[in-house]
Amino acid sequence: MTQSALSIQELTVRAGDALQIALQELDRTGSGFLVVVDATGKLVGVVTDGDIRRALLRGIAIGEPVSAAMQENYKALSIDAAPEAINAALDTKITFIPLIDAVGRPVDYASVNRHRRYPVMEPVLDGNEMEYVQECIRTGWISSQGRFVALFESMLAKFHDVPHALAVSNGTVALHLALVSLGIGPGDEVIVPDLTFAATANVVIYTGAKPVFVDADPQSWNMDPEKVEAAITPRTKALMPVHLYGNPCDMDALCAIARRHGLKLVEDAAESLGASWKGKFTGAFGDAGCFSFFGNKTLTTGEGGVILFKDAALYERARMLRDHGMSKQKRYWHLDIGYNYRLTNLQAAVGVAQMERVEHILERKRAVARHYCEILAGTRGITLPPAHPDADPIFWLFTILIDPNIGITRDELAERLLRNGIETRPVFFPMHEMPPYQQYCAEAVFPVSKSLSRMGLSLPSAATLTNSDIENVVANIKAILDVRQMAEVARITLDS
User: Which of the 8 DSSP states describes residue 4?
Assistant: First the structure.
């Protein structure tokens, strides 16, 4: 989703306009500021949501002119000002600057949000990535053979304290290969969460098995263990929990269910590398644990994935199937119909460099989440991500819930943030609502996943974010919510 920055025309009001009009424009744009012009179009002031709030508290009526609340002592620069001068003038107190022409008319503006975009995620690539990729190119080992593939696998196995890790071309094929290696096929059922990315269900369908969807738990947002138990039938062969947005599932409950019913357990840990349940990393609980290293994940290889195994025989079968089903002892002798699911040495080189700094990257992710929680706590209408005493989440995406009763929808908030340089992402659509999966849902209802999907919003979550970046994101959120509340109060006042 892309959208151009707000124009100066969209941020301009006249000094004689009523404060109500200025408040409506602030609510519409989500900018937090407007420039004020006289009848000739010359700049005479600026006004913010805070200025209007303070004016109302002083007893100035909402129908009074903007001039009664605007700042006449403001910073403005020439449209010809050098970028260095503009950047020097922008700071934590001056977050926007009108840019004027020779006769004093506003023709553009500079702002902190306009000069710094905040993506939902971006990779951390400031280690040995370039050096290792260049080694691959210098030596000619650019395909699926070379030292970095085996090294990447061993680093991941050691990090998760499991004996085997198998690198593959992406997270989706990791899930598919895990299921196939476990013997999941036509006639089988695999229980998956209704609130997840489509790949979780797609890989079950690839095998010929049937995905059985279960609703989310309202506290954890992950698949509800009670509903998992209720969904088991004689055809159920596996559970596939997803550690949604990096928040661990209740692995005690799910492992107990799997043992009790003799089911395989495949963890979709694509979003949760570094998260743990009772001190044990996600991905290390089940028969297989699958990760993604897509460009927006906590660690990346561009594309790529890995499967963790505890059982040597299962690992060897998956390893054989990954390479066209070819025998490891007899070259070009195929034992089964396999796949080309290999990771390249180039990609693994990036992964090795990422793993060399995994603790640093994970700590930065935790620090980002902590700071968000600290400054968003108590904000009206916002629910913070789940927090369970046995879980240590990694918050791949820091995701909040927006109460639909606070007067602004999740999508309206996202649109206003985007216009101010802040990207967000809605929570996944529930699987049962999308056309390809409705045939698997019969008459089932999923009220929790439906509600979470409507309210959930993921904020910028990259490990590259600084505290001031996070504070700016939150300041924008709070300003947008405050303006909407003031606009609603003003409307009620004028209507009464």
Answer: P
Alpha helices by DSSP H, 242-401: 251-261, 312-322, 345-356, 358-376
For the chain, the structural domain boundaries read 9-115, 129-356, 358-493
Question: What digits encode the pLDDT tens for the residues 369-423?
Answer: 999 999 999 999 999 999 999 999 999 999 999 999 999 999 999 999 998 889 9
First vs last Cα of the chain: how many Å apart? 40
**What is the rounded CA–CA span in Å between residue 473 and residue 364?**
17
Ramachandran assignment for 418, one of left (phi > 0), alpha (psi -120 to 50 degrees), beta (any other)? alpha
pLDDT at 72: 92
**What is the pTM assigned to this prediction?**
0.91
Report the C-alpha gap between 328 and 312 in whole angstroms: 15
How much is the pLDDT for 1? Answer: 39
The DSSP element (H or E) to which 84 belongs, if any, is helix 83-89
Q: Which two tokens stand for residue 116?
A: 């710094």
Reference 458, options 240, 193, 247; nearest CA is 247
Fold exhibited by the domain 9-115 = CBS-domain (3.10.580)
Computed from CA positions of residues 8, 10, 11, 17, in that sequence, does the dihedral angle turn out positive or negative? positive
Contact between 182 and 238 under an 8 Å Cβ cutoff? The reply is yes
- Residue 2's pLDDT is 43
Overall average pLDDT of the 426-431 stretch: 98
| 41 burial type by CB count under 10 A (0-12 exposed, 13-18 middle, 19+ buried) | middle
Question: Residue 404 is encoded by which pair of tokens?
Answer: 């639909």
145-147-152 Cα angle (round to 5)? 100
Percent of the chain with pLDDT over 90: 88
- Average pLDDT value for residue range 113-137: 91
Residue at token pair 């913010």: 48
Judged against a pLDDT cut of 80, whether residue 314 lies above it is answered with yes
CA atoms within 13 A on the CB side of 261: 22
CATH of 358-493, one of 3.40.1350.10, 3.40.190.10, 3.40.30.10, 3.90.1150.10: 3.90.1150.10
Give mean pLDDT, residues 234-258. 98
| Residue of 346, 322, 342 whose CA lies nearest to 334 | 322
Is domain 129-356 given the CATH code 3.40.640.10 in the classification? Answer: yes
